[in-house]
Amino acid sequence: MPLTVEIKLNGKLIASSKIANVSDLADVSDYTWNCTENGSEVTGLEDAQAWGQIRGHKRKQSVWALVSRVAAQAADTINRYGPF
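Predicted structure:
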């Protein structure tokens, strides 16, 4: 079952992510993720997608640690390569 993260601004969905554990919930796990971001006049970006992997994540910590790693990779990918 994937972890779903939705980011809303004034109730409007502006970005989302699905994060899935691919290592049977081991204490140190690997994940795949995909993120979408809606285009915005504020950011100047068009609709964008990114996807990737997190390897060797220690599960016995706040879920925000995993979300922050995914967010950092997604932002880096979208900022570097632009919309897909």
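Summary: DSSP finds one helix and four strands in the chain.
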